Amino acid sequence: MDLPYRDNVGAVLFNPAGQVLVARRADLPNAEGAAGGWQLPQGGMDPGEDPSVAVFREMEEEIGTARAEIIGEHPDWLTYDLPPELLGKALGGRYRGQRQKWFALRFLGTDADIRLDLDPHPEFDAWRWAPLQALPGLAVPFKLAIYTVLARDFARFATR
């Protein structure tokens, strides 16, 4: 298929202890320890939307808060391709994968600010703080390369 990539933003949200927020996909509720059941907040960009604005909108939509500040931005747009069994199905069937701009953010709120119950059809049903280096072990195989890059390139933000 000759499909385009969907523009997307992602948030690596760091708490004061240097851990990152990961959330469990609601469509995979039994994936407690399985790779792919947990992911970072991310989402599609609106046409013409600035990525640094989109990342806050997506956090608000997915985790119920945008109480954060940008402390870093990955210099590259990172891409992944969907596996063949998801082509034509995932992402509305219109994309081959996603082209993502990733941001490191410092969380300025409290755990009580993280609300997965505000959306009537939430993407996530649970969340937790995890070590940044755990990201590759949480990723679905087709996102493994991106999560490995993020764990390496954002390591400088994983400090107290």
Description:
The protein is α+β, with helices and mostly antiparallel strands. It has helices at residues 51-63, 135-138, 144-153; strands at residues 5-14, 20-25, 38-39, 42-44, 68-73, 78-81, 97-107, 124-130. Strands 1, 4, 5, 6 and 7 form a five-stranded mixed sheet that branches. The chain has a three-stranded antiparallel sheet with strand order 3-2-8, with no helix packed on it. The chain starts with a strand and ends in a 7-residue tail after the last helix.
Provide a concise account of the structure shown.
With 160 residues, this protein is of the alpha+beta class.
Q: What is the count of structural domains?
A: 1
Q: Which ranges are low-confidence, i.e. pLDDT below 50, for 5 or more consecutive residues? A: none
Task: Examine the secondary-structure arrangement and name the CATH architecture.
Answer: Alpha-Beta Complex
Structural class: alpha+beta
Task: Kindly identify the CATH topology.
Answer: Nucleoside Triphosphate Pyrophosphohydrolase
**Overall average pLDDT:** 92
Largest sheet: 5 strands, mixed
- Kindly estimate the percentage of residues that lie in beta strands according to DSSP: 25-35%
Class in CATH?
A: Alpha Beta
Q: What's the name of the CATH homologous superfamily?
A: Nucleoside Triphosphate Pyrophosphohydrolase
Q: How far apart are the first and last residues' alpha carbons, in Å?
A: 45 Å
SS field, number of helical segments: 3
Radius of gyration equals 15 Å
Shape by Cα distribution: globular
Order of helices and strands: EEEEHEEEEHH
| Number of extended strands | 8
Helical proportion, percent range: 10-25%
Motif (Nudix box): 43-64
GO molecular function: hydrolase activity
EC number: 3.6.1.-
Cofactor: a divalent metal cation; Mg(2+)
